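Residues pack. One example:


***
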Amino acid sequence: MKPPLPVADKTPGTPRKKTIVAGPKKAAAKPRRKPEPSGLDQLQSVIVGSLEDDKAEDVVTLDLAGKATFCDRMVIATGLADRQITAMAQHLTEKLHQAGLKRVQVEGAGGSEWVLIDAGDIVVHLFKPAARTTYGLEKMWGADLD
């Protein structure tokens, strides 16, 4: 026994008109993926993670893209003693080297109230509480700058 023949389309008109009548084909829904974190986001997570491991207080990240030419982000944190700030700077430098950053510059690591770590696109400031209040970098570079 032969299989039945397919039924012909009864829509009048040319193939183009038949296509228009049929309407657009539904595309299969693609599963959405989370966007890959950028290199800057990965670097920031290494920095913030290292500071949190060393018990830094009041860690703040400021987005300076379009506001400053020397960096895209700034991380500010507080340490309670010179030794803690020095240890935070040393541990952070080691972790940045492990993350593949070749050149990390540190200023003020010899026991001062303010240590600056230049990680290229991110600048890290480690302060004692009084110095952080005095310099007020959050106010200087925060949302009010806009």
User: Anything to note?
Assistant: The longest helix spans residues 82-98. The beta strands are 57-63, 73-78, 105-107, 114-118, 122-127. The helical segments are 15-22, 39-53, 82-98, 129-135, 137-141.
